[in-house]
Amino acid sequence: MRALAAIALLLSATPALAQHMGHEGHDMQADREEVPQDMPAADPHAHHRMQMDAEPDIPAAPPPPEATTGPEHAADTVFSREEMAHSRNAMRREMGGTSTHLVMIDRLETQSGTGSDAVLWDANAWVGGDFDKLWIKAEGEAEWSGPVEEAEIQALWSHAIGPWFDVQAGIRYDIRPRPGRAHLALGVQGLAPYFFELDAAAFLSEKGDLTARIEAEYDQRITQRLIAQPRVELNLSAQDVPELELGSGVTSLQAGIRLRYEVVREFAPYVGVEWKRELGDTARYTQMAGGDPDRTVFVAGLRLWF
What's the chain look like in SS3? Predict the structure, then answer.
């Protein structure tokens, strides 16, 4: 009987216990909802800033006294003055004091367009060192079936005035048209920003005529061997020169592009197109002579150097 009474008492208490346990979850959820929701998120980089802020500044120490004493070259304490002088002369000679040379036929081409076809050449050669060189420049134009119309040669001393440009001075002689005419020449040549090759010169003739020429070109590599080269040339004159069919001001403008393929670095055939335009009184002289002051020609030629 006692056992039956105990079992009956236990069964009667179970619903109340279950009801009490069911409300415990509500109390825990209410406690969680009391936490404010607008707390700032934790910064994952905070420990990095703490480490950087914690690093002390390292003071800059002065150089040791031994760094400013002794000879300028430490090798002077080991070898004799004669040995060092011989070594330095050999280094200057082998690292830039040697004499080198180059022959470049930049343009040897035929030009076809309205009118008669022509052949054009533009070549130069130099010999010398890093600072001083002797330059020879030659260029001209002739009709395939006619005489040479224009031809000139220049002999110039070139001196480096910086890592990119040389100043050039010398003489220019016009072989054609006749009669020949000599000029004093002064200009600069070098590599302008963005790798534009620039050649600008002024010429004072024996007759007192002052003219100038500016040439610029740029090598745009398409591949290691295929290169597109835009080129611009501007000619100017300070006065009218009727015997040369030149007016004052800007006398002519040329702009073109050539696409060359380097079979080897020293040998590159090319094709291209060029626009030529005489301006001002120069255009009038050309028209009076039966020529066209505004023309476009197609070119094909070779570029060689050795």
Answer: CHHHHHHHHHHHHHHHHHHHHHHHHHHHHHHHHCCCCCCCCCCCCHHHHHHHHHCCCCCCCCCCHHHHCCCCCHHHHCCCHHHHHHHHHHHHHHHHHCCEEEEEEEEEEEEEECCCCEEEEEEEEEEECCCEEEEEEEEEEEECCCCEEEEEEEEEEEEECCCCEEEEEEEEEEEECCCCEEEEEEEEEEEEHHHEEEEEEEEEECCCCEEEEEEEECCEECCCCEEEEEEEEEEEECCCEHHHCECCEEEEEEEEEEEEECCECCEEEEEEEEEEEECHHHHHHHHHCCCCCEEEEEEEEEEEEC
Out of 107-121, 187-201, 268-282, pick the least confident. Answer: 107-121
> d(Cα 262, Cα 21) in Å, to the nearest integer?
92
Amino acid residing at 279: L
For residue 1, the model assigns a pLDDT of 46
| 276 vs 154: CA distance, rounded Å | 24
pTM: 0.72
Q: How far is CA 141 from CA 109, 121, 123, 150, 175, in A?
A: 10, 7, 12, 5, 11
More confident residue, 55 or 204: 204
- Residues contacting 292, CB < 8 A, separation 6+: 114, 115, 286
pLDDT tens by residue, 248-300:
999 999 999 999 999 999 999 999 999 999 999 999 999 998 889 999 999 99
Residue 281 corresponds to which amino acid?
A: D
Q: Which of 178, 90, 166, 179 is nearest to 133 (CA)?
A: 166
How distant, in Å, are the alpha carbons of 80, 117, 213, 216, 275 from that of 257?
59, 19, 19, 12, 9
